[in-house]
Amino acid sequence: MARFSSKLNKFGNNAKALGGMMSTFITAPIVGMGAMATKSALSFESSFAGVRKTVDATEAEFAGLEKRFRGLAKQIPVSVDDLNSYGEAAGQLGIKKENIVDFVKVVADLGVTTNLVGEEGAKQMARFANIMGTSQKKFSNFGSTLVDLGNNFATTEAEILQMGLRLAGAGKVVKITEAETLGFAAALSSVGVEAQAGGTAFSKVFIKLASAGGEELKQFAEIAGKTGAEFKQAFKDDAAGATIDFVEGLGKIDEAGGDLFGTMEDRIDGDPVARCVVACRWVRRSYA
Question: Can you tell me the distance from the alpha carbon of 203 to that of 169, in angstroms, rounded to the nearest whole number?
Fold first, then answer.
């Protein structure tokens, strides 16, 4: 009995030690993982609530969005909560539910590869598309254009888009395409023109060229190297190309020693516009 008691005591001590080890290295981590999983699930539900708030969809469609957002988070180094916030912004700004995942993917890709990041980038992109009337099935084209311009000009994608937003309204009115608008934006921002002042000033150039008539039209056409009728038709057929011809004509005046700023003051609206046009002298590279 004494020997048996001694063995039981030894067994009890070993069992106690084993229990302590299991509590430390097995039970505690399991409890911790459970807590983390619960926290993650709550975080997802909280962020996805924003999508539910702005997107009009059925429960089955919401389940599909959840699944696709979780799938994107495995492909792109962006958290699923951030993807949900982009989805919320998309719904808020009128992106159709069938195009939301594609939109979110482009925003996430741009966030990883450029300085255009976060919910603010998503909002700017959606607003540009809304102003220009961009097909919501072409967000990948938009992203590719923006990245290509950022790679080939001394500017960033965020600066291009900010300038593009300033030009978009006038660009839409004179029928300049999204790609051409971004091209002008890249040219302007790459030489240090600020979006607010430069975008407003250059928008005046678009509108003034589009609405010119009589003697004013004749003067603009002369700068572009055309007759009044030729310039009017050229602007109607290809507003971006006609604007570039005008810009290059101004460049020739400047190179020949002419009073470029005086010319612009007489015809458009003072020095800010002149500075923008001079800065954009080589915009043909963007347009091409």
Answer: 8
* Mean of per-residue pLDDT scores for the chain: 80
Which of 69, 33, 27, 32 lies closest to 48 in space, CA to CA? 69
Task: Output the pTM of the full model.
Answer: 0.73
Helix pair angle (157-173, 178-190), 10° resolution: 130
Q: How many CA atoms lie within 13 A of 144 on its CB side?
A: 4
Q: Helix, strand, or coil here: 137?
A: coil
Rounded to whole angstroms, the Cα distance separating 136 from 90 reads 11
Q: Chain centroid to CA 52: how far?
A: 23
Helix (H, G, I), strand (E, B) or coil at 154: coil
User: Distance between CA 265 and CA 165 in Å, rounded?
Assistant: 25
Q: What is the distance between the alpha carbons of residues 142 and 146, in angstroms, rounded to a whole number?
A: 6
- CA 184/CA 282 separation, integer angstroms: 10
What mean pLDDT is predicted for residues 124-145?
91
136 C-beta neighbours (distance < 10 Å), count: 17
Q: List CB contacts of 267: < 8 A, sequence separation 6 or more.
A: 208, 216, 219, 220
Which of 203, 163, 200, 197 lies closest to 183, judged by CA? 163
Tally helices (H) and strands (E) across the chain.
Answer: 16, 0
For 89-100, the pLDDT digits (tens) are 899 888 999 999
Q: How far does Cα 69 stand from its chain's mean position?
A: 19
Interval 32-47: pLDDT, tens: 455 444 455 557 888 8
Scan for tokens 């790609």, then name that residue: 179
Residues in the chain: 288
